[in-house]
Amino acid sequence: MEDAIVTSQYVYVDDDHLVAVLVDDEAYYRTIRGKAYVADLRDEFAFESDVADAGP
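Request: output the structure for the sequence above.
Response:
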C-alpha cells in the first residue's frame, strides 16, 4: 500500500511529510489504512479514489 500511496500524483512526500500505513488486525478481518499529505487540498477526494486497492 505504501508504494501505491507514494506513486500517486496527488501526494507530497518529504522528510517533514511522511507516509504512514496503519494495520489493525481483528479476529475475522484486517483493516489497512494509509495516511499521507496531499500537495493541494482541492485534490484530497481525488487522492482517496486514486489509491484504492482492488484486492486479490
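The radius of gyration is 12 Å.
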